[in-house]
Amino acid sequence: MKLCRFLTSQQETHVGLLTMENQILDLSDAGVNNLTFLLEAENPLKQLETLSQRNLARFSLNQIQLLSPIERQEVWAAGVTYLRSKKARMEESNFSANAYDRVYSAPRPEIFFKSLPEKVVGPGEPVGIRMDAQWNVPEPELALIINSQGTIVGYTIGNDMSSRDIEGENLLYLPQAKIYQRSCAVGPCIVVGPTETVARTWTIRLQIYRGGGIIFEGQTTVNQIKRSFEELVSYLYRSQTFTHGAVLLTGTGIVPGDNFTLQPDDRIRIEVNGIGVLENTVIIV
Q: Same domain, yes or no, for 261 and 146?
């Protein structure tokens, strides 16, 4: 089941269910006006299966604009969960390479704040590269959708935009490298139902287009994530409360080479075969 938020031609925000026929079943027509209501339900999948049987209004994708499936959830991120990410972070760091080497195998994972919900970019919206950075990359990631009780209720796609030169200069600059305007994209929908075992069979693919052609592409599998999803969530929710739930990006296993940096008007396409496609263009912020 694929949950989404969308904007109608009347500029109204609705909650929808993406069908196998690539139509949007309007759940707002059944009185469901926010995703949180469903994500906090005792059995979200059962609720969605019941709603899908109702005779509700439908939209085709060309009639609506998909929005980020984030409402009031904070977005956090786990780092150095892939071996490739560990190597990349060590290579970019002048003084703190040993910290990334140690955290990869440490009992406690790296977890950091990424974005307030109102700053999350949705499908088709521009993502940003910092005006004071010279080395910028996307980080395609599987995102966990977690309810207020700390239960994983779904999955979506995240793009953890990063300024590698700022992060590499000093470990204490990590917030500036990661948290800025338009630095986080999430979408296009929330997939409800799959287990972690199923999610680990998925492939993450990244393509970056410039001037009509592909200038970088790479792929990895979710199963390359070193830590279990439950372990990552358990650390996020330690000594923390999330009244509206949270989103946790699970790290990246695709890192462009050291000679690559994003430029304005590049188009970033991230595909997870169990979820869909998140696509955004690049601007300077």
A: yes
Mean pLDDT of all residues in 148-166: 97
Q: DSSP characters for the chain? A: -EEEEEE-TTS-EEEEEE-TTSEEEEGGGGT---HHHHHTSSSHHHHHHHHHTS---EEEGGGSEEE-S-SS-EEEEEES-SHHHHHHHHHH-SS-HHHHHHHHHSSSPEEEEEE-GGG-B-TTSPEEE-TT-S-EE--EEEEEEE-TTS-EEEEEEEEE-EEHHHHHH-GGGHHHHH-STT-EEEEEEEE-S--HHHHTT-EEEEEEEETTEEEEEEEEEGGG-SS-HHHHHHHHTTT---TT-EEEE---S----TT----TT-EEEEEETTTEEEEEEEEE-
Instruction: Judge if 174 and 245 occupy the same domain.
Output: yes
pLDDT digits (tens, 9 = 90+) for 73-115: 999 999 999 975 555 555 555 555 577 778 888 999 999 999 9
Q: Which residue range(s) make up the domain with 222? A: 74-284
> Looking at the structure, do residues 140 and 197 belong to the same domain, yes or no?
yes
As for how many domains the chain has, the answer is 2
Average confidence (pLDDT) over 45-72: 96
Per the prediction, the chain carries an average pLDDT of: 94
pLDDT in the model for residue 84: 57
